[in-house]
Amino acid sequence: MHRSPDTLFALPGEPPHEQVSMFCDAGSGLRTIIAIHSTARGPAFGGCRVWSYASDADALRDALRLSHGMSLKNALAGLPFGGGKAVILKPVETPERASLFQAFGKRVDMLGGRYITAEDVGSTTDDMRAVQRNTAFVSGIPRDGSFGGDPSPKTAWGVFLAIDEAVRHVMKRPLDGVTVAVQGLGSVGMALCRHLHAAGARLKVSDLDQDRVRYAQSTFAAMPVDSDQILATPCDVLAPCALGGVLNASSVPRVAAAIVVGASNNQLLTPADGDALHARGVLYLPDFLVNAGGIISAAREYLGTGDEAEVMREIGMIRQRVAELLERSGGQAPFRVAQQWAEALVG
Ligand code: NAD
């Protein structure tokens, strides 16, 4: 029997999922989609994004793409977790945040541990404390004041190591004097700038928030670049640290960097955009490999094993994985090789 590919069970181009749950709560204004791509390695672990989507379908697509990415990320990082992600559709009226996240926590709890949540774009450590009132399946909350908590600094450190390794591989030199363009000066982007500046890199930066740009200018001697120019600005390394889908048919031909490595999830709008970068001789390292520092920290915190030094050692493995990927890739596009590598580990 012929079936249209556009069914609720298979959005075109999106990977099949084990479970997708949608919850509403009129009292708090909560509308959330929790996507569980795979629990083959263990409970699905991934953050909770709060965003204003143009349509419910866009929210669903984002949840599906992000949760699939979490499967790849968790597997490649060797974590005993599957992939999942939640999106909360930002209410039109400004919500009472604590009740919104408490309501979300209740829904996470209803999944009985199949999904574990944490921070993502639009949610904070305080929000996770509210989630924790109604479920134990949450991470990203400092438990003893020093270990765990906000994953962003850990993400930034992993991305920094990946950039350093890529520069050594492609440019045969250390970061000192290399020009890095950072798109997005949020929790991860700003911390990344700090590491890059300390390593002697020259920075070009953009953010929609001009206060952040001014801070980077005064603190890291960064050169400001218009937001619509940052992807095309001449530089050695481009680090997308804002939103997904920025590497697309319109931006890829304009990329002037030799290397693209950043924190944003799902930077490629489509795999063809990664192929186009590769064909242009640009080294693109996939986000699910390089931005795993945050989930490594959140996972350790959740498991309650190890300590800060152990987390940093695990994040340090990102450098080795980048080196191994570059060796495995030969002439192939590294993001394709990484995807196959990760898919085999997802189970
Ligand atoms: P954030 O919300 O703190 O920062 C994002 C920044 O990007 C904001 O300052 C925003 O103003 C800016 N921005 C948005 N659109 C922009 C544009 N068009 N041009 C320039 N700047 C723009 O988010 P974050 O936590 O720093 O995360 C950044 C990216 O990294 C996201 O895609 C996120 O999914 C991904 N990521 C984050 C973590 C983490 O630990 N926080 C882990 C893995 C992946």
From TrEMBL:
* Glutamate/phenylalanine/leucine/valine/L-tryptophan dehydrogenase C-terminal domain: residues covered: 149-347
Look up the record and give one Gene Ontology term from the biological process aspect. Answer: amino acid metabolic process
* Gene3D superfamilies with a match to the protein in the record: Leucine Dehydrogenase, chain A, domain 1 (3.40.50.10860), NAD(P)-binding Rossmann-like Domain (3.40.50.720)
Q: Which UniProt keywords apply?
A: NAD, Nucleotide-binding, Oxidoreductase
Locate the residues binding NAD(+): 184-189
| Gene Ontology molecular function terms on file | nucleotide binding; oxidoreductase activity, acting on the CH-NH2 group of donors, NAD or NADP as acceptor
Keyword Nuclease among record annotations: no
Q: Answer yes or no on keyword Oxidoreductase.
A: yes
Which SMART domains did the record assign?
ELFV_dehydrog
Where, by residue number, is the active site?
Answer: 85
| Signal peptide bounds | none
What this protein is called in its record is: Glu/Leu/Phe/Val dehydrogenase
